[in-house]
Amino acid sequence: MTAPTTACRGPVSRRSFLEAGSLALGGLGLSDLLRGRAAAKETTGLADDTSVILIWLQGGPSHMETYDLKPEAPIDYRGECNPIATAAPGMDICEHLPMHAQVADKINVIRSISHGFANHAAGAGRFLSGYNPFKLLDPLGQFPCLGPVVSKMLEGRRNPAMPRYVADSSNVYGGGSASLGPAYLPFVVGGDPNAPNFEVKNLSLSPAIKDRLDDRSLLRKAFDGLNREIDQSRVMDSMDKYDREAVSLLTSNKAQNAFDLSQENPKVRDKYGRHKWGQRALLARRLVEAGTSFVTMQMQNPSIPGAIGNWDIHAVNGHLFDDARARLPVFDQAVAALVEDLYQRGLDKKVMLIVSGEFGRTPRINPQKGTASKVLQPGRDHYPGAMSVLVSGGGMQTGQVIGSTTAKGELPKDRKLDPNDLLATIYRFLGIDYAEMVPDNNGRPVPLIPFGTPIRELL
């Protein structure tokens, strides 16, 4: 849409109106984002009001230091962390996750997911899209990934007063919307939710503008620029639809309240932890409770003394076990509080929680000289051959350990699963037909995932 050279008549200029709706999506305005979805196929009927929270552990967490310890393995495999018993019989986890242990009856741990891509971008793209990437280093991936797919497939089926897809950054590394286009990228929440001055910018209009939005003629003028001589009635109806959706979100008290952490009980905020990860987890709960369908919150760059930025703990990056001792208690508090909160608030049937990264770490420890420490220290490298995923809520039976790995944590031993099986489970829970076709980058129709079956233990 070409911007006019003159302002609209009245006290509200088109420029100020559109700037009010601008989101942190590479300059994409809210109204433009919503209008860009006009080419998508309209869906009819309402899906069940279900939501998914993805806690994404960029870099790839070690299964051997979290949910799949091997105390009987040789020392160069098992490392320094010890397992502890949990509230779920038979589910032992890392000693640095004691709060997880207390809520273990409300979680499932999948230990037997694997795939074949050991590169961060390729691994994330494979895990989140279900397709083998053909450009291994592409940070955006080549196939539509989970969040954008949900945003597209639930279009028109959820309350427009809440964004369908929210994330703390525009893209997970290796993920993206690919052929679906930027219209299905997330509503981005930047910054640190634990910061005293945290706010979500550009979510509301000024009172002067908001008070005049019931003036239909003004609203039409605020969104001018269409060629009204071409198929005027049909195009204008379509334009009105997306403008109304933009205004609905911008003027929604529901959305503004969901993002406002200051409204939360201080004791609840303390329970999650007054740190970036804890408050991101709490924000995710507030969003799905208000009606957002899919939320991605990344737990990386924790600003914790002794922990490196993400979960990519090669020896050159950091000391594996020192990092675990610093990182895992913060992670433990945030995730355990989220699990407990979902159940206490009666959201456990409405909301499915997924905690995962793109792959696991090499079962055998690889000591190297640290880039910063200049001394020999332990680390683990990229490893897609085995990984652990935590799943909670979703109305499922919990307290289960699903699958297992071999004695040294190298490969799935039983109940071997693919990331596509998890994707099929998530899509089914959200009421999305994972056999539905979408165009690939060449315009050819392909299914949301090429194969995969919902995990029966999670149904």
From TrEMBL:
PROSITE patterns xref list: TAT
Annotated SUPFAM superfamilies: Alkaline phosphatase-like (SSF53649)
Annotated InterPro entries: Alkaline_phosphatase_core_sf, DUF1501, TAT_signal
A Pfam family it matches: DUF1501
Superkingdom assignment: Bacteria
PANTHER family recorded: BLL7424 PROTEIN, DUF1501 DOMAIN-CONTAINING PROTEIN
UniProt protein name: DUF1501 domain-containing protein
Lineage summary: Bacteria, Pseudomonadati, Planctomycetota, Planctomycetia, Planctomycetales
